[in-house]
Amino acid sequence: MTFLRFVTMHLWLLRLAFIGMALPITSGFVLEGSQTSYAQFRKWDAGVNGSLELEFKTEQPNGLLLYTDDGGTYDFFEIKLVEGALRLRYNLGGGAQILTVGRDLNDGHWHKVQVQRRTEKTSLMVDGVTQSRTSRGKEFNFGRLTTNSDVYVGGMPSWYNNKLTLLALPSVIFEPRFGGAIRNLVYTDDEGTIPRRQEMIMKDYKYPTKSNQGNYKLVVEHSNH
Asked: Residue 161's domain is classified under what CATH number?
């Protein structure tokens, strides 16, 4: 191999490495857990038979993983860590229900969470362990897509502090924020469609930097709503 060919190949490999570092990694992101950190995703049309799943890892025992609601009326889904256990609190119009699964989930390893709806029955699965409850009432549709909130991960936007009436569960604004890694957030866009991985809604944020986990660190400053 000539010296010129060697240098050309070396520069080409360096260029590929630089491109690989510059491209966003879609498998996950890291939230620092500060008072301004959260990630925002498109609305979840949970309907009456929707499903949602994600994976997380953290060393913190408490923190809000995910929240979405019907725009401030009744329906909501809140997923959070409470002393190392995963708790799903939700309302489909007939009163709040709570499901709790797992323990010591703040061990720094990946854990898979799945929420499954089957009309009045809602199930929470964590690493293959499942709990289910049946909701009361006659109508189990999750809000309306036109008025439902976006899906928030890790915390809530600060503008909600002045608009608590837009929250079906106002206390969510006071939950500790999640500090750790999230990946593979998957849910359906419409009832009956195939679930797919969701893409983050980018608004005002600092440019991502490499984290120790090999993903990117996202720090959302605020959201223009």
From this structure: 2.60.120.200
